[in-house]
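Researcher: Let's run the pair from yesterday's discussion. Sequence first, then tokens, for each.
Model: Starting with the first of the pair.
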Amino acid sequence: MHERAVAGKTDAETAAAPLRTPDNGYEFRRLRYGRRMKSSDAEVPVLFAGGGLVGLSTAMFLAQHGIPSLAIERLQKGSHLPRAAHFHMRTLEMFRSAGIEDEVRAQSNVEFEPEGSIVLMDSLAGKVLVQFIPELNAGVDAFSPCRRLFVTQPGLEPILRRRAEAIGATVRNGHEVVGFTQDADGVTTTIKDVESGHERQVRSKYLVGADGAHSRIRELAGIEFDGRGVFSNSITIYFKAPITPLLAGTNYSVIYVKNEHLSGFFRLDRDQQAGFLAINTVGDTAKPEAASPANDVREETLIAHVRRAAGVADLPVTITGVARWRATADVARRFREGRVFLAGDAAHLMPPNGGFGGNTGIHDGHNLAWKLALVLKGIADPDLLDTYESERRPVGKFTVEQAYTRYVTRTAPYLGKKDYEPLADDFDIEIGYLYGADAVHEHPGVSHGRPGSRAPHVWIERHGVRISTLDLFKGNFVVLTGREGHAWIDAAPKAAAKFPGLRVDAVGISDDAFSAAYGITPAGATLVRPDGFVAWRSVDGISDAERQLTKTLAAVLHRSA
């Protein structure tokens, strides 16, 4: 395998490296601002409203590109409820590139039994009615080096935070955004200390609203939702109970329950002594009030719900928490307002069926981070940021519709709804979504590295070590070519030099399986973006590789060649 790393770190990248200060805070040499700044200063390149799952992930991805940021979070200690348990293979691929996959998997193994199936039962003590997914990771190995897993937000968020802070982000708890204004040069955000009420202003080049379903940023930006609105006032009950005897000899990851009393689903901890039960309907679904279990959250009612879902009338149950939430299927009309961006639940709301919500938000952040970084470094034109909405909104809408389809068909067939989209394969949703193509998705088994698709996973050998092609994508552009693609290897540094500060890696791979997976001949080439998506490819070799690569990079960066 031939390879070449094109250009070393730019002055801006080197300047962005975090330095420890004696008080264990961070001191950042500012990008393009001409002075050093401390994380306590009133100016940062990027400000995040929301320091939860999506905010922390995006801050981590941004820091990978050498851009410091400040994330503010209203909660003092983050989420204490074990939400967002299901994480998809594409999300784990992103965590892999950030260097935290092993730590996340270890935490998952502490909390949950790996693998498992997704089934529908009449109760935990009853029988299986439908087996939706026989095994959580069936077929995954053909498409990814990573596997789906379950891990709670309280288990995952500290890992994200440690990594983000270690490489350049700052997180402040107990603060919230109360207002912002923007101008041609940046955003001035007013932040309030929740406890003291003290307000101060922070200046940033960009503001990212990752502040959830009731996003203050979205509200202040005047962005409305389109969609179906609320179709269930649901609850999630967190509890402890001796469930183990009911599930002996089984390995269920998610257990949907539907009987005359309620409809919802269980997710249980590894020892099956605790977990949560999400409930969408209670009682006679012919009555409107059936879709509002949130109307009654008295402890005795919650205990009764768990017992009826378990199928054991005298089951000892201790309630440890309850969360009200609204089942919706909505997408923001815009993902951007000037220098303000929306990500995660602030941009799209969907039922929990399929576990798509948190994953989709993380993918939003992964798409946005590299674009912000290249614009802040002056490598890309600010017009590149327009592609965040044009790429992520169609994917968000598609995913919302697929979650709604699963809600109607798995949880609420009583609605008799016919307005849902045909069920798409989970692989299409997780790793088959497309950017800039006529279709929004296709199965990864047929994409073969087409532009706009996620670059395929292929096992290759590098320096005597077996790695995935995905391991080559560490935040730079990458030119991949086959065993006859020497011209592309030589052209890459010359093309990169046309864009000062740009880093491009060039890698030649002699394995024919690689060429087949990427849809090119051994003389062809593929340009992969920093987020691991295919920007362009040449099926075969051409006479002027440097000119073509220069033209392609200019188009991606929205710059003149």
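Model: Moving on to the second of the pair.
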Amino acid sequence: MTEALTRTSADALDWATCAACGEMIYNRRLARTQRVCPDCGHHTRLSAPERLNQLFDVDGWKLLESSVRSRDILEFTDTKPYPARLAMARYTTGLTEGVLVAEGTIGGHPVIAAVMDFAFLGGSLGSATGELITQAAERSLATRTPLLIVSASGGARMQEGALSLMQMAKTSSALGQLDEAGILTLSLISDPTYGGVAASFSTLCDVIIAEPGARLGFAGPRVIQQTIRQNLPDGFQTAEFLLGHGLIDMIRPRSELRGTLIRLLAAGGGRSRRPHAVREPVVRSLTAPVAVRDPEELPIRDPWTAVQNARDLGRPTVADYLSRAFEDFEELRGDRIGSQSPAVIGGLARLHDQPVMVIGHHKGHTLAELTDHDFGMPGPGGYRKAARLMRLAAKLGLPIVTFVDTPGAYPGISAEENGQAIAVAENIRLMSSLPVPIVTLVTGEGGSGGALALAVADEVMICGHGIYSVISPEGCAAILWNAPDQAPTAAAALRLDARSLLELGVVDAVLPEPEGGNQNDHAAAAEQVQTVLSQALDRLAGLDSQSLVARRRARFRAFGTAAVTPLAGSEAS
């Protein structure tokens, strides 16, 4: 194994040929680009030692030795006896098994890594490989250290029969224990990753990163074509295809992998992090106006004017706030079941050095951006993506900040076919029980259940020109007045403006806006939002998980109960 650490796959010849574009590349130049073709960007395969040297800090890692070795339990022979294949793999790679397990630091952050090597029997998942992956997870659990898995595999190791199949269950169970313990898991998909590896540990991690062009799938394209006898779409099973279908979080070229891992580890990978560690509330010096909690301190605004202001395309979007009020944002994409909604943006970030999960509706500023982001109206995939990120925040003990700005959930055929109502309902139920602080800010429109699905929070605030309503004024006017031109009348009747919402207790505070609205001064708006959100999280920091959930449920239990008589036989609270 020591020999493998000094070998490279590029020292045999002075020149290499790119498998993608066919260009001849000087090996020293290829080494400088981390074995990425400088002409076409093709990411050639790395050995496990090369990968460890690339990702970890210099002199910042060591191998965790193990006596685990593959054995020929089935006495399997195809064109060669299995022991002969193992011997050849060990000779050509310098490795004893197809995965290296190491412990070290990436950007100073402790990490346990299990790195597969495709050159060792095609990275196939045998009993020893599964055991080493499991041991890495167990080491991660014992030391409460984030786990990084780098996958490269053609699938199960057929020479080990059903014992290879059982490794999928063993490794998946180990990942489940890390979930229960609140330990961050990261998966890096390299080309290719198929079969039993794709259907177990490589896709069960909290964050899935893929290199450009990396292929990931349960069955290989040749098997699929032979089975269904259909042509496959261009780019099928590539990282780009998977990202568009919401199955991975991000694609990163090799040159950006270390930086991405460092940011993810900084946000969610604290060694001692446990679900919502209670801390002392912080009192911050104010650099921006505080939120208003007394409606008498707010001006009376015309509700229909408030509607027009809330819909102004110049208002800051969640992307604007992320770039100005937060640091080190890493967007996480997809619901992992086939959808990547552009109407919801979410990911890990820092707010005044506090790691947080940020999720928000996203519209855009132009017609093209509105179209690209589905006018800020998520389908079921958008809400399921949000739910995935909220569960991840709960696992890692991170506070959640949500930004609400939507006309409502998308009301289309595809949304109904895919369970729009169920997705909204499940988010509402999920948020009511999350054991971490949740703060919501309505920045523009808060439209119906599509807004509430991101707003079941410990504190709900709204910008001064924002609105929040059970239905749009136009919809209300069409239904109750049968006259769309009565929308201004409906807006007044719905009491959807910020001052009225504070009077009703629907929101806890209102953020005053600069002269002319937040659309006229994005920087001032972001500064105020940063301050107010930080203060809210600081206030909630002193509550344990049980108190947070009980308080949140009581908040929403109280709505509409002023004149309610308890059911006969029940105890009044």
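Researcher: Give me one sentence on the second I can quote.
Model: The first helix runs from residue 27 to 32.
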